[in-house]
Amino acid sequence: MLAAHYTAVSARPYGVARTLVSWYLTQTLTVDAIHELQASLGFDQLEPDRQHLLEEALGVHEVQEITQLAQSGEAVELVVMLLHRLIERQAATHTLVLMIDDLQWLDEPSFKVLAGLQARLPINTAFMLVASHHGRDQLPVKLHWDQQISLGNLDALQSSRLLSQLSRRYRIHLSPRLRNQIIERCDGVPCTCRRFVDAWIWIVVKGAVSSSMNCLKGY
């Protein structure tokens, strides 16, 4: 099983697509990298204008009219076609899990891309979307996946067990005080808990343990 994790950190359009393609290629997106990916997927025969539009959506060109790009139905269609091929290839050998941290912060084009993928992917594709949503605001696009499971927040014991699993997985030590602070701040949301652990790993790597909780205040 392979997992790609997306956290919306800005209002950039097509953020999910950019993150997923970059994750798949294990590199920052460039024009050449996108061309190579398209060739490998048999999706390299686009007309110049459509090719440029796809590259704009994937963020490798400066865009003058962000709003126009975000509202472009043609751009959404091109991105869906590319991701459809990519996901089917990856899912042929591995189960692919896309994790999205809080749907309410997702950009609207990404919602349209997810809806387009839902309509195109065969029902037996080994692809799963795992996302958190607090339900405070209505989503701009309704997502009706073949199987939808709604989970409540984890309680303190479940959060503690999740932290223990993550600690073993990444071979890190969390003091009792830090564990309690993370459990309190994550509010029972698994994706948020994972973000705290990612932040702690970064802190340890950077050798900034003494200021650990200060670094976590922005989460």
Poorly predicted ranges (pLDDT <50, ≥5 residues)? none
General form: elongated
Total E-strand runs: 3
Biggest beta sheet attributes:
3 strands, parallel
Strands side by side in the biggest sheet: 1-2-3
| Rg over alpha carbons | 19 Å
Number of helices: 10
Assign the structural class, choosing from mainly alpha, mainly beta, alpha/beta, alpha+beta, or little secondary structure. Answer: mainly alpha
Content of β-strand:
5-15%
Helix content: 40-55%
Tally the structural domains. 2
What is the quaternary state of this protein?
Answer: single chain
Q: Kindly report how far apart the N and C termini lie.
A: 27 Å
**How are helices and strands ordered from N to C?**
EHHHHHEHEHHHH
Average pLDDT, to the nearest integer? 83
GO molecular function, one term: adenylate cyclase activity
Protein name: Orc1-like AAA ATPase domain-containing protein
Pfam families: AAA_16
Domain Orc1-like AAA ATPase: 24-123
